[in-house]
Amino acid sequence: MVSEINSLNSESEISSLIKIGRAVVDRGLVVGSGGNLSMLLKGGKEFLITRTGSELDQLDEASFALMDLDGNLATGSAKPSSEYRVHLESYRARKDINTCIHLHPQASIFAAAIDEEIQLVTTDHLYYLRKIIRIPWIAPGTQEVAEATATALKDCNVVILENHGCVVVADNPRLAYSRALNLEEAAEMTIRSALLKVKPKLVPQEFEQYLKQQGL
User: What is each CA distance from 34 to 11, 100, 105, 147, in whole angstroms?
Assistant: First the structure.
């Protein structure tokens, strides 16, 4: 399997995912073997995804499975995360992305659990997140949650899975990671606002219009 991945010139892809895995654990966005990461390889026909049982701060080359967009596992590949369907359907739905991150960020999950819509308080929140779609509880690892996620991602880059986690996509790993960080920060501010019983001032709509005008 390692030789297969190397033959695809995917060393940089693996390195990026390994770094993100360590970073999301360090930031408390996932613990243990929760969460999974994937990246579409050059050519857009296959993707790497963390293998089942992987702890994201302990990743190495052997921690990844290789699949194609028909859902086939490469010969000799490791067994993929049980959430591989979410990644597969996300890539099928969005031809403009190459990174998919699924995490279990506590503040984001809790904000949804208390029925608080995550507020975009800073310009960074709006720039990175724009729109967040929340999906009611669906059992993890199922085709149903994968299809619901893919449908939501046609209209946003950030999805909250109630009582479960989040799915964040982007056209590069750094942007996906930045979106995950800003999602959790926005959720934390939302919870603080709810505790204080205050409604924060949100970023003016003019800023979003400006971003659209700039093609950002």
Answer: 24, 15, 10, 20
Of the candidate CATH numbers 3.40.190.10, 3.40.225.10, 3.40.630.30, 3.50.30.20, the domain formed by 2-213 belongs to 3.40.225.10
Domain segments of the chain as ranges: 2-213
- The pLDDT of residue 123 is 97
How high is the pLDDT of residue 33? 83
* Among candidate residues 137, 128, 135, 145, the one with its CA nearest the CA of residue 183: 128
Which residues are registered as beta bridge partners of 73? 67
Sites in the chain below the pLDDT cut of 70 = 1-11
0.90 cut: is pTM over it?
A: yes
* Residue from 13, 46, 83, 184 carrying the catalytic annotation: 83
Q: How many CA atoms lie within 13 A of 160 on its CB side?
A: 25
Confidence (pLDDT) at 51: 97
Please give the structure tokens belonging to residue 100.
Answer: 């998919």
Active site residue 83: yes
